[in-house]
Specification:
Blueprint: H1 4-25, E1 40-44, H2 51-65, E2 73-77, H3 84-93, E3 100-104, H4 107-113, E4 126-142, H5 150-159, E5 165-168, H6 175-186, E6 195-198, H7 202-210, E7 216-220, H8 221-229, E8 233-238, E9 264-272, H9 277-292, H10 294-302, E10 306-311, H11 312-332
Parallel strand pairs: 1-2, 1-3, 5-6, 5-7
Antiparallel strand pairs: 3-9, 4-7, 4-8, 4-9, 4-10
Length: about 325
């Protein structure tokens, strides 16, 4: 005979077992055991061939090859406005979607700080997960360009800026634009007088250079590396504090050339604003394991990237500091909002 007391005890036991099982599986609360449970998309907010695209593809390849993520990972290209078009969609439509991440770099700050083409959204509307690498800017011309060094180019720009077309893979006032005009600004040229043409991604900017539609481009070292190796371009200067190694060992820095300018390009991974603590912890652990892996170290070397890892609070603090620095630069260039 089943008494009310026995029934109540058994029902309580069943409920307790169910709760424990649900907790162990992650349940509706999104515990770490429940995530990730479906394919993950990593967005490169640009066209193919640039630094964001290469970072996203290297990231997903190594995470899969090293078996750090069990789920399928794919890359999507979402060009437009130097990342601003994608970010607007992401912040408004994917703020609770932990299965869509994206890679970014200083433009996520610049687009929010600049006066023209301003984005209302920035890194504070996302969850910064980790900085993975650092790169530097490069001033690049075709291999057969008449400009033998950065000083010759700057002198020509100073004499008549309307005769030289400068291009980059992002919108006016964005990272490639800053890289392109920073040497001119420091050389005493009015940055507003420099004719700048923007393309959607570093790959398109280099194509414009090689096709004769631009005289010089400002881009990142990693995007220029394969073209330098192939003998298709000359790199007149890099924005690092000291000379780089490998294929860039003979390229002078801007400072060496008498132009007092430096610019570091960091690249990192971001998620939606409304991630759970467990989801953030999963990526903190996973991306740290990526950074420590030999496969990733080889990937860095093959792309001429330098490692610089920050996660969680450290990455957020770094972005806070970068925001102050870039606001100062844009203000000096007359481009701050």
């Amino acid at each position: 005979m089943v008494t009310f007391k026995n029934w109540k005890w058994k029902a309580g036991l069943v409920a307790a077992v169910a709760a424990i099982t649900l907790t162990g599986c992650g349940g509706a609360g999104g515990k770490s055991g429940d995530y990730p449970k479906k394919p993950i998309v990593v967005v490169a907010p640009s066209g193919a061939g640039g630094g964001w695209d290469k970072t996203a593809r290297s990231l997903t390849k190594v995470l899969s090859e090293a078996k750090l993520v069990d789920q399928t990972m794919t890359v999507e290209n979402k060009p437009g406005g130097g990342g601003a078009v994608f970010l607007a969609d992401y912040v408004t439509q994917d703020k609770k979607n932990p299965y869509k991440l994206f890679v970014s770099s200083p433009p996520i700050l610049i687009n929010n700080l600049k006066k023209e083409g301003n984005s209302p959204y920035g890194y504070k509307d996302t969850t910064p997960l980790a900085q993975l690498t650092k790169d530097f800017g490069a001033i690049v011309v075709k291999a057969d360009s008449k400009y033998a060094d950065i000083t010759a180019l700057m002198n020509a720009l100073k004499a008549d800026p309307t005769k030289i077309t400068v291009a980059g893979g992002s919108a006016p006032g964005s990272m490639d634009h800053v890289i392109s005009i920073l040497p001119a600004y420091k050389f005493g040229i009015d940055p507003k007088a420099v004719k700048y043409v923007s393309y959607d991604g570093g790959g398109e900017a280099i194509a414009a250079l090689l096709g004769g539609n631009a005289d010089v481009i400002g881009t990142d070292v990693s995007s220029a590396a394969e073209y330098l190796k192939a003998g298709k371009v000359k790199v007149l200067a890099v924005t690092s504090a000291e000379r780089l190694s490998g294929d860039f060992k003979d390229i002078p820095t801007l400072k060496e050339s008498g132009i007092d300018a430096e610019f570091t390009i960091w690249r990192g991974v971001f998620g939606p604003k409304e991630m759970t603590d467990d989801q953030k912890a999963y990526w903190e652990k996973t991306l740290k394991s990526l950074n420590d892996s030999d496969v990733w170290k080889k990937e860095l070397q093959s792309n001429s990237w330098e490692p610089e890892f920050r996660s969680g609070d450290e990455f957020n603090k770094f972005l806070d500091d970068q925001e102050v620095l870039l606001k100062d630069v844009l203000t000096a260039l007359g481009m701050a909002k």
